Amino acid sequence: MSIMPPTSRRGFTLIEAAVSTVIVGTMVAAAVAVVGTAAKGAAGERAIRKGQTLAHAMMSEVLAAAFADPDGGTNFGLDSNESHADRTTLDDVDDFHGLIESWPTDHLGRQIPWAKSWQREVKVNNVAFGDPNTPLANNVQTGLKRVTVVVTSPEGRITTMVGLKSAFNPIDARPADVGAGRAIRARAFLQIGSTGSLLVAGAELLNTPSAATAPPPIVEPEPQKVEGTGSTEVKK
After folding, report:
1. Contact 94/65 with Cβ under 8 angstroms?
2. What pLDDT is stored for residue 72 in this prediction?
């Protein structure tokens, strides 16, 4: 009967264990730093997109309004029957001047859920065609208005969008034949789901008089959902 000699088993020494711990700890710290940087970058990118969305939605709404008051008012800013709390009463560009929202809303006044704690402000100024960057007094009529939308995120990130509205275009400089009916503006409404916020975008139509009869009352169309697209389409 033979007896096998005992096998020698050598474990980690204290120094080897300490070195391994340092190496693993360094790798974990580096990985955490990379993940943290990526998360901050993604959050910053989302904030930029949200700011641009809020600014563009408001800019489209403002520029879709008339250059001058369709009712003949001469005030710069709100008239007696208009209010920033109800934007459906605003019918010309400078009505939006001074509008400030601490919780941005859609065109119908409904708060946008993801925009809580954001702020949005609108400024409208008369400017000269040769120098559109210098604001002029409210009573100086130049035929050109500069619209500035400033959006501030909860973290203080600022998004600024600037647009120009001119009176000298086929729509706002239309002739005096009031009895000529025409389509002058179109607005598109986008709502995803039954509870989603309503976003509005507008455009002016380059159109010519189509009939020598008084135009019918303009009724704001209800958005109609297009099946299979998740978007909304306005049909007239």
Report:
1. no
2. 82
The answer to whether residue 146 scores a pLDDT higher than 80 is yes
Question: From CA 134, how far away is CA 227, in angstroms rounded?
Answer: 47
Distance CA 8, CA 206 (A): 93
Do 116 and 10 contact (CB within 8 A), yes or no? no
pLDDT score recorded for residue 27: 76
Radius of gyration, CA atoms only, the chain: 30
Burial environment of residue 88 by CB neighbours within 10 A (0 to 12, 13 to 18, 19 or more): exposed
Q: Whole-model pTM above 0.90? A: no
| Residues 55/199, Cβ–Cβ less than 8 Å | no
User: What pLDDT shows up at residue 13?
Assistant: 73
| Alpha-carbon span 200 to 167, nearest angstrom | 22
pLDDT tens for each residue of 113-129: 889 999 999 999 999 98
Under 8 Å between Cβ of 198 and 165: no
Amino acid letter, residue 70 = P
